[in-house]
Amino acid sequence: MALPVDRPLLTTDVVPALGLDRPVKERLHSTLEAAWLLGLDGGGWAAVQNDTSDGPPSLLGPSQAILLRWLERWPHAVLRRMGVASPRELYLQLQEAGCVISRRNYGLALGCDGSAGSRWLNSSDESASPIVRRICAFVSGEGDPTQMTARWSDIYKCAETEAIARRGCGLKSLRSWYAEHEAVVPRQKGCAGLRWAQQVEAADHS
């Protein structure tokens, strides 16, 4: 099922987009892998499951929606070796590869606010969420500049698609990903969420 481009992505899009409604043998991802991919802790994944069965669905967080759209274009990316890149490292790699992008648009393209790019480049970027780091790792890959820039181009396109669907404008005009009082799936925060993600990641690679 192709993801819609005329509306923001919702929690109800996760299961079909990641193939979790298919027979187990045909799936590229397990439930644990899906939660890990989207940077969700136990509560966040429970919200996805509950929205699938009860009540109106919630919006996915911007970074989650961007990654889900990107995985539609690069479905086998999770089966390849991922690079280990922080937002700062990826930005520098992209610059070396000839990509020109403002810090503001860089932060927005990763589903964060426009000031995030400057924060990441001016600090040790420990504030970057697990899902942002995951997107950076997917884009970085094995370090091939041509492939890396192609992956980044698609991340940017996916962010543009989501921004237009969600806020009615592209990244250059986007002020914020969030409207006032907008409800989204809980984003992973704090050490407890990070420990849960690390446990899932360890289980996936055991």
> What's the structural domain tally?
1
The total count of strands amounts to 0
Please report the number of helical segments.
10
Structural class: mainly alpha
How many angstroms separate the termini? 31 Å
Report on the structure:
The structure is a single chain. This protein has 206 residues and is mainly alpha-helical. The chain has one domain. Helix 4 crosses helix 9. The longest helix is centred in the last third of the chain and has 23 residues. The protein starts with 13 loop residues before the first helix and ends with a helix.
Which keywords apply here?
single chain; 206 residues; mainly alpha; 10 helices; 52% helix; disordered C terminus
Can you describe this structure in just a few lines?
With about 210 residues, this protein is mostly helical. About 50% of the residues lie in helices and about 0% in strands. The protein has ten helices and no strands.
List the helices and strands and how they pair.
Layout: H1 14-17, H2 31-37, H3 42-53, H4 62-73, H5 87-96, H6 103-109, H7 116-121, H8 130-140, H9 145-167, H10 190-204
Helix pairs in contact: 2-10, 4-9
